[in-house]
Write a structure and sequence with these properties.
With about 210 residues, the chain is of the alpha/beta class. Helices cover about 30% and strands about 15% of the residues.
């Protein structure tokens, strides 16, 4: 059985300022986020991860390093480009308020099935689903009986996990997105059937 432990990166300056932060932009973690990442590592300290697969973006890399610093067994970090965050295209780095009256932003948040960001060069939910699923299947094939750490982003984790569980795009954001430095655990024996063991766990941050 493969057990995926997904950890979202810590809160960044752009998160705090309500700025769209996708695949094309990055901003530094807040000081509290390093503390929270270490709390996450302390909570997971007894898990023997075979490897840590991490988005190439600095906010995820820095989070992963802080988590791993608290583990008893410190896995090698493998940078996985397909785990980069959703690509907001020309909107990446814009304040969310700039687009608050745009129906495309409404669709992005509330109606993923009908979201179309092609006019501003954004990725589609389907493209995100495909690349994240592709990467996770590669990880499964490499670690059919291991625990693996995956440090990535809100949309990568939320849409990736819910897609594997069979959730359709009509309801895929109904429960919201995973929180910063949260833990989500997903198990599978065959990459066909999946069991969600933990979703968006944050009690370790209290």
């Amino acid at each position: 059985m493969t057990r995926f432990y997904f950890v979202r990166h810590g809160k960044t300056e752009f998160n705090q300022a309500d700025i769209l932060q996708g695949a094309r932009v990055d901003s530094p973690l807040l000081a509290e986020s390093i503390v929270n990442a270490k709390k996450t590592g302390a909570y997971l300290q007894d898990v023997s991860f075979a490897k840590a697969y991490v988005s190439p973006q600095k906010r995820a890399q820095d989070t992963a390093k802080a988590v791993i610093s608290q583990l008893k067994v410190r896995p090698e970090i493998i940078t996985a480009d397909e785990l980069r965050e959703f690509d907001f295209g020309d909107w990446d780095g814009d304040p969310i308020a700039k687009h608050s009256s745009d129906p495309r932003l409404y669709d992005f948040i509330h109606d993923p099935l009908h979201f179309d960001g092609s006019s501003f060069n954004a990725e589609s939910y389907l493209d995100l689903k495909k690349r994240v699923t592709y990467e996770l299947e590669k990880i499964f094939q490499a670690h059919p009986t291991d625990d693996v750490l995956v440090a990535a982003h809100a949309l990568v984790i939320s849409i990736g996990v819910k897609s594997l569980l069979g959730t359709d795009f009509n309801t895929i954001r109904k429960e919201g997105l995973v929180a910063n430095t949260s833990i989500t655990v997903l198990e599978t024996d065959d990459f066909k059937d999946f069991e969600l063991k933990t979703w968006n766990y944050t009690k370790h941050l209290k």
